[in-house]
Automatic annotation (TrEMBL):
Organism: Diacronema lutheri
Pfam families registered for this protein in UniProt: Cupin_8
Lineage of source species: Eukaryota, Haptista, Haptophyta, Pavlovophyceae, Pavlovales
Cupin-like domain sequence ranges: 89-249
Identification of the protein by name: Cupin-like domain-containing protein
InterPro entries listed in its UniProt record: Cupin_8
Length: 252
């Protein structure tokens, strides 16, 4: 074990790889202790490159996206400001009836809303950590070169998120090899440094049994998830960027 040999960064990497095979609460606690020891070490910063200036994710043009995708207003979800929808009304009018709704401002006050607009924040917060990444446009598209890989967060930022920001600004496609997606991963359990950036939305109190799982999706432009059905209810919070979600009724 690398920690016994005085190599805490390598020990963190070993534990990260172990967690990618399956989340384990005790292993997470061990990893946090090891990472704290690494951060407190005399040469803690030696493994981290200097972080450059902020790179802000371009603000998406929602109206232009609607026109490009030929979306009709009649097809969009009901939009309700958070201050006008209490948990009881959400529970009876939406959760109990299975009626989706877009709650505007439900994540107001999250630190992530300010921090995550700068993609280099992830380098500063956890650049040395290993995360799972899907590379390529789609696992269902033959010949696309889609694959899964584990990589350090700083490499994900440099090789995927930064090129995606540049492509957004230039309004050009992103090469398939630069498309990257850390998808449906328990990132806040895995990397506790990011957990303080969010909180559980109050509307999750409507669910029987409480919150079962908190996942994170962090990716470039042109990522896609195939049509699927989840066996559990979802509360999706969009922190930065733009995401198109197509919902189909049970009779469709």
């Amino acid at each position: 074990f690398a920690l016994d040999e005085g190599r805490p960064l390598d020990a963190v990497e070993q534990l990260d790889w172990a967690l990618l095979t399956g989340m384990d609460a005790e292993l997470v606690r061990v990893l946090e202790r090891v990472d704290s020891a690494r951060a407190a070490g005399a040469n803690a910063g030696a493994d981290e490159p200097e972080t450059e200036e902020r790179v802000v994710v371009p603000t998406p043009d929602v109206d232009a996206a609607r026109r490009r995708l030929d979306l009709r207003a009649a097809d969009e979800l009901e939009r309700v400001p958070a201050e006008r929808l209490c948990v009881a009304e959400f529970a009876s009018g939406h959760f109990a009836t299975g009626t989706p709704v877009l709650v505007a401002g439900a994540a107001r006050g999250w630190p992530a809303l300010d921090k995550w607009v700068d993609v280099r924040y992830f380098v500063r917060a956890c650049g040395h950590r290993i995360i799972p990444v899907e590379i390529g446009r789609s696992a269902l598209k033959a010949g696309d070169g889609w694959r899964e890989a584990g990589m350090r967060m700083r490499d994900f930022v440099a090789g995927h998120l930064l090129p995606s920001c540049a492509a957004d600004l230039a309004d050009r496609p992103l090469p398939a090899g630069s498309i990257g997606y850390c998808a449906q991963h328990q990132l806040f359990e895995h990397v506790r440094a990011l957990a303080a950036d969010i909180s559980v939305p109050v509307y999750c109190a409507a669910a029987r049994g409480g919150v079962q799982l908190v996942n994170c999706w962090l990716g470039t432009r042109e990522t896609a998830t195939p049509l699927h059905f989840d066996s559990y209810d979802n509360c999706l919070v969009q922190v930065v960027g733009l995401k198109l979600v197509r919902l189909y009724g049970k009779d469709q």
